[in-house]
Specification:
The protein has 8 helices and 8 strands. Helix 2 (94-108) runs parallel beside helix 3 (126-133). By secondary structure, the protein is of the alpha/beta class. Helix content is 32%, strand content 18%. The mean pLDDT is 95. Strand 4, helix 3 and strand 5 form a beta-alpha-beta unit. The protein has helices at residues 56-72, 94-108, 126-133, 147-153, 162-169, 193-206, 230-236, 238-242; strands at residues 7-13, 17-23, 79-83, 113-118, 137-141, 177-182, 210-215, 247-250. The protein is globular, with a radius of gyration of 18 Å.
Length: 251
Amino acid sequence: MLREKTVFGPIISRRLGVSLGINLLPENGKLCTFDCIYCECGWNKDGLDDTTLPSAEKVRNDLEKKLQELEKQNVKVDSITFSGDGESTIHPDFPQIVDDVIALRDKYAPNAKVSVLSNATQVHRPDVLAALRKIDNPIMKIDAPTNELINKINRPHKGYDVGRVVEALRKFDGDFVLQTMFLRSDDFDSSSQDVLDGWMAIVRDLKPREIMVYTIDRPTPAQNLRKFSVEEMQNLIKPLIDEGFKIQIKG
């Protein structure tokens, strides 16, 4: 199980380059509105020892200290990324923290992008949506086109509805990045035609400026999960590539 400090890295991200991470969740626990079967942070039930969220002041101070260190070391950062041990947008001060991070980015690392990796469960909230619209790379997750399959893969908290998420994401007017995990198990397959057709219909509806398609890269809490090759994923999403969608594929 990964457990991250409030500010961690920078690390080399296969999607974002040199990425400095911000964890708005507990440093020794996990809080998330999903409990994904592939999550590198482990099951939610195994992350209950620590439920303390960092304050907005701590995030601001820790980030400024780290950016000052990197500036002295002449380390260039491609992305300052909200990620960490769970879902960043559930932090009650997320909008204020976004403003603080953008201000510090502008001061110390003006060429870096601000990114967020989110499961999109809070995007229907006006305050969260407004904060996400300020971010350079709002990376929103939809792993499957139906609630039934999302319940198998993402195991969301009660009340999740993919239709509501799609409706909320329309408010970005395409100015966001859609992220989707491709994987197989003994009882589902992201490459089955009905799943592909439903997912591609969502893509065509939302018209995101970029799509990140990826597969398992690290140990997973669930067993018997199988990854796709880059070539397989390229073949599966070829209709969208042919239609002109910008798609990043990572194995």
